[in-house]
């Protein structure tokens, strides 16, 4: 295998590449499983109150898929790879599964699951940002863009749970991902 200068540089800058690969693999695992679970959660947002929340859940769901798509190429560039077995992939995800709550008819129960998932993602990508800041600009850039959207998602669900104002705005189209998607220049759907 040829010498990869990009890896040489970030190792020289003090990045533990093996640890970074594990963190990214866990992070993209969480994004992938969150996309799956948000599909289920969205489907259970029913009734007058739930119908108004479906679109917000859909934005977060598609943007989480975009986060997966944005970071996976970097995982491979670093010498990592997605596990070949999806069960293993889901088991090593960096955040707990966002299961549909038993009392799903209470929309606040669903919102609490969504909020917990976003808060875990913020912690996960924050760790990647902390590890790469000033040492690995490419990974840092992708992770901080993901963080920007995860922080927005957290604010959306806090707003819905607490009636606290947030910066939530309607996306131009579902899954816009202003920081990592079609408008954010990292991926193009």
From TrEMBL:
Q: Which reaction does this chain catalyze? A: 2 Fe(2+) + H2O2 + 2 H(+) = 2 Fe(3+) + 2 H2O
Binding locations of Fe cation: 31, 67, 118, 150, 153
Q: Which domain of life is it from?
A: Archaea
Domain spans labelled Ferritin/DPS: 23-163
Whether Membrane counts among this entry's keywords is no
**Which keywords does this Swiss-Prot/TrEMBL entry list?**
Cytoplasm, Iron, Iron storage, Metal-binding, Oxidoreductase
PANTHER family in alphabetical order: BACTERIOFERRITIN, DNA PROTECTION DURING STARVATION PROTEIN
Instruction: Spell out the protein name for this chain.
Output: DNA protection during starvation protein
The organism is Nitrososphaera gargensis (strain Ga9.2)
